[in-house]
Amino acid sequence: MKRIPKRSQTREGRNSSRYTGVARADFKRTLKPGGLIVDKLKAYRDLHAHALFSSLGRLVASPFNSIMTIAVLAIAIALASGFYLIMKNFNQLAGNLETTAQISLFLEDGVSETEAKHYAEAIGRNPDVREVKLISREQAMAEFKTHSGFGNAISVLKTNPLPVVLQVLPRGGLEDKQKLERLLQTFRTEPYVDIAQLDLQWVERLHSILAVSQHAAALMNTLLACAVLFIAGNTIRLELHNRREEVIIARLVGATRSFIQRPFLYTGFWIGFISGIVAWFIVTVMMLILRQSVEKLSSLYNDFFHLLFFDFSETLLLILTASALGVVGSWVSLQFLLQEAKLE
Amino acid sequence: MLKFENVTKRYAETGDVLRNVSFHLHHGELAFLTGHSGAGKSTLLKLIAVIERCNRGAIWLDGENLSAAKESQIPYLRRKMGFIYQDYKLLKDRTVFDNVALPLVIAGYGHQEISRRVRAALEKVGLSGKEKKYPMALSGGEQQRVGIARAVVNKPPLIIADEPTGNLDPELASEIMRLFESFQQVGVTVLIASHDISLISKMNHRVLKLDHGQLILG
Ligand SMILES: Nc1ncnc2c1ncn2[C@@H]1O[C@H](COP(=O)(O)OP(=O)(O)OP(=O)(O)O)[C@@H](O)[C@H]1O
Ligand SMILES: [Mg+2]
Fold first, then answer.
1. Chain-chain contact of A3 with B107 (C-beta, under 8 angstroms)
2. pLDDT digits (tens, 9 = 90+) for A57-106
3. Which of A163, A148, A179, A167 is nearest to A100 (CA)?
4. Of all protein residues, whose CA lies closest to atom 8 belonging to ligand 1?
5. Residue A180 lies in a domain
6. ABC transporter domain spans which residues (chain B) (predicted)?
7. A275 and A316 in one domain?
8. Which residues form the domain of A193?
9. Is the pTM of this model over 0.90?
10. Which atom of ligand 1 sits closest to the CA of residue B35?
């Protein structure tokens, strides 16, 4: 009775004659220095490459299922990344507002344009003031006519009811609130000034609203990430069901768990990756549609706002996250399913 | 090589399917496992494949205790065995080549090595030139030989077959049996479950007989 040595090198050398009668060639091959380990590494790489492409091929082979899955995933991812982009744009908007925090001085009715001009120059010399802009009655009227929608009704008026307005841009923005308040108080005591108004409160409110929405968006995105995980997991469940026989046979001939999982994880990767790209397109197209109206709105406010799209690193992050969610969802699903799956 | 020590297997639904089974299969031995339907033959083979675990006793393969093997070890243990089934268990959407290559792919062999070994195994079972065919395009006997090629391609020291000739006519059946004998002749240990008494009696080999879960001959 022959003993079968455990070490594979010798075993290969001796056993090959059993079925193939090519013991010598076999033996030489395994003895070639480095040959075996390099072959194994190559085989391992080939295995991954094969799993990568065959899982893509399998997705292509059942286009209806794949498109359905990817569409659902892409919409979920588009929602999440759309929220992100909206928040990013709002933040930019709020940032611009901060720098334009301004005090509006509505002058008394009796103040003439020249008086107003002199007064504006006087204010301009105040070290706490960066810039003063005078809006004449006519300018105010013209602006009001075009933007209020009451254009025709106002043409009927004989006299211009609007006061001269001075827009004062304080130095130092919002950081020093007390300084702003002091400035406001001095304007209020001036005889020329009817109403002095600091456009600040609503900026603050906007900021707190933004903070809340940011929170809400984060929660929504967590939820959507879970949805992506579940959808990916379910897709893998169906895939595993379809390939049950293959899995059982592979196990019977000695496949490890990681060998069994590999193609499914690659499937998860592909559906996540493709969905991420599709989601990017969905959001970008939507932003392009929105752009026109946003730019129009922005032009009314001195062009201070431009729509932000995904930049390169965000695009990369989006696709990476989508792929990772696909893989993780598949992995979690496999941990449950492969535990249950019985042979036969 | 393969040793059963007082092995008992119990199913909650059916009670003791195997009771106190002990035997020792030596290297290079060919043995038949017989018994009436429901005697426990398939169950015994499942214990060897570690598809099921025994409730009592121990099963040794080359000094390793199969019944106590860790889950992560099972794939590596299975690579030391070649399994052959009555229903062939071939992948219908893969070619003959791919079916036979599967154990080698799993074990991580390189391309050339796989191709060389698959061709050798197919030649051994008399299926040279059918590499590119799909299992459905083959006769039952040919499909079974593909199954056998897959079982031996990895050169395992132990071959296990469950009713390998169950679906074949007598002539094909004895042809398949001669194939198993040829493996035995080069030192492989073979265990074949079968209730084809006439075929078994024609061949002069050891017989293990199960009756209601007990080994009454062996
Ligand atoms: N998974 C299982 N759960 C419960 N009982 C089982 C299970 N598998 C087999 N059995 C029972 O074990 C007994 C032996 O079954 P087994 O398949 O080993 O018989 P066998 O000798 O292979 O029969 P056959 O010649 O018909 O294939 C049967 O009574 C069967 O009902
Ligand atoms: Mg059976």
1. no
2. 888 888 998 999 999 999 999 999 999 999 998 888 777 766 556 788 88
3. A167
4. B43
5. yes
6. 2-217
7. yes
8. 102-198
9. no
10. 21
Residues B151-209 have pLDDT tens digits of 999 999 999 999 999 888 888 899 899 999 999 999 999 999 998 888 899 888 999 99
Ligand 1 atom 12 nearest Cα: B17
**A313 in any annotated domain:** yes
> Residues A107, A60: one domain?
no
CA B195 to ligand 1: nearest atom: 25
Tens of pLDDT, residue by residue over A228-263, are: 999 999 999 999 998 989 999 999 999 999 999 999
- The phi and psi torsions of B57 (rounded to 5 degrees) equal 90, -175
Helices and strands in chain B, H and E counts:
7, 10
Q: Please tell me the distance from the alpha carbon of residue A15 to that of residue A186, in angstroms, as a whole number.
A: 101
When divided into structural domains, chain A yields a total of 2
**A343–B110 CB contact, under 8 Å:** no
CATH topology of domain B2-216: Rossmann fold (3.40.50)
The ipTM of this complex is 0.92
Mutate to test the pocket of ligand 1, among B42, B44, B86 (most ligand atoms within 8 A of CB): B42
What ligand has the least distance to the C-alpha of B35? Answer: 1
- Spell out a b/e string for A14-53, using b for 16 or more CB atoms within 10 Å of the CB, else e: bbbbbbbeeeeebbebbeeeeebeebeeebeeebeeebbe
Distance of CA A184 from the midpoint of ligand 1 (Å) = 93
